[in-house]
Amino acid sequence: MTASERMKMAAGEWYTCLDAELEALRIAARDAVFEHNSLPPRQRGDIGPALRSLLGGAGEGARIEAQFHCAYGFNLFLGDGAFLNAGCTILDTAPVRIGKGTLLGPNVQIYCAEHHREAPGRQAGLEIARPVAIGDNAWIGGSAIILGGVTIGEGAIVGAGAVVTRDVAANTTVVGNPARAIAKR
């Protein structure tokens, strides 16, 4: 049996995003995100109903402010009290785990997909998905970018505007592009 593109994506293998099943899943996510972003705050609550049902998991008190965007939703897992501020974009082609009490500032972006390095591969929609894990009680500053394959440790701080291309140790502060450690607590 030939593996589907979704199975290849889940296995961390090269897959083509130009696939009908994956497109249907992205449409479902866009619909849920649209509802979340369109509902009045008192009706939406912490997370819009359709988006909450789509997520891989959302702990007690987890909150996503509007405007928000995700690629699939089912690969996004939020710990208790996790907070995503306005404008966050999570391209969750692989699992994204955000720990309890972790705060994401406005416009934080998490990109799990890595496109093929050769033009013909990109034209064919080839990409590979790499997971992201952010530990408990981390703080990700506004407009930071986190690339696929990165783990950010418990209590770490990522400065505003940083581009995180490598793992960040627990209780470490990183800043810059590419992000580099400036303090360890």
Structure write-up:
This protein starts with a helix and ends with a strand. It contains 5 helices and 20 strands. The model has no long low-confidence stretch (mean pLDDT 97). It has a single domain (5-184), classed as Hexapeptide repeat proteins (UDP N-Acetylglucosamine Acyltransferase, domain 1). The radius of gyration is 16 Å and the shape is globular. The protein has 185 residues and is α/β, with parallel strands linked by helices. The protein has helices spanning 5-10, 20-38, 41-44, 49-54, 119-123, and strands at 15-16, 57-58, 63-64, 68-70, 76-78, 83-84, 88-91, 96-98, 103-104, 109-111, 113-115, 126-129, 132-134, 139-140, 145-147, 151-152, 157-158, 163-164, 172-175, 180-184.
The CATH architecture category equals 3 Solenoid
Mean pLDDT level: 97
**Which secondary-structure class do the elements indicate?**
alpha/beta
- Broad shape: globular
Task: Write the CATH fold name.
Answer: UDP N-Acetylglucosamine Acyltransferase, domain 1
**Gap between N and C termini:** 51 Å
Q: Domains counted in the coordinates: how many? A: 1
**Helix fraction?**
10-25%
Count the E strands: 20
**Rg, please?**
16 Å
Runs with pLDDT <50, length 5+? none
The biggest beta sheet reads: 7 strands, mixed
